[in-house]
Specification:
CATH topology: Acetoacetate decarboxylase-like
Number of helices: 4
Structural class: mainly beta
Strand content: over 45%
Order of helices and strands: EEEEEEHEEEEHHEEEHE
CATH class: Mainly Beta
Distance between the termini: 16 Å
Low-confidence stretches: none
Helix content: 10-25%
Mean pLDDT: 90
Number of strands: 14
Length: 242
Amino acid sequence: MPVLASDVEGVAYLNWWVDVQALPLPPAGYRYWTRNGRTPFTILSYRHRHFGPAFLGPLRGLFPSPLQSNWRWYVIRNDEAVDAMPTVLFARNIMDSLLHVIGARLWSDAMQPQLAHRMRHRVEDRNVWTVIDGGAGPVPTLSATLELGAAVMPSPAWPGCFPSHAEAMRFLACQDAAIAVAPDGRVAHTTISLPIDLDAIVPLHAIDIKCPMVSQMGSAPADAFCFLVPKVPFRVVSERLL
């Protein structure tokens, strides 16, 4: 797979603590990163800008700019200490572009996205709106209305595990690798480049969030720790099967 590049924008992070007992078993050799029986769960939604092979340079501007939403947990290897820096485990990847869904499924083992029946994600003035409608298919649904506001950690678990808002955001956003279960059952490992400037992160306040999947994992959708990364260059650097 060639190196892929995109200039993503409007990356809205929604984060919860969920019950590990309500989650599927992690891949063999891994366990969830936990604190008091719960683990973070993140939904980040954004718009790509000309997502395509990096080697094309300026010609990448001919490629479309789809919406994408990544749903993920955090895991560590069984041989790592409990305080090791976790790796992202993809739960869902959702896009609004059939072309990109087909391309990813053909060329990637780790990125096996699903096509949303309807998907909207918009950042305008002081508000962020995200709607994911799975229709009659297996895509989970999400409806979120957020606004710029003071940084808030609704759940007691957030300040109990991180000394500051900045450290919590660093943990959730500054990731350089992800794993997923490939179609053949093996673990696929992806290395990414996502150089987020923590000083550029904007806190968000949840006005209304509905997400049945979060409820099924034992957390209240409205009890989300949210923030916005206005824009960041993104690259898929490499991928391998473990």
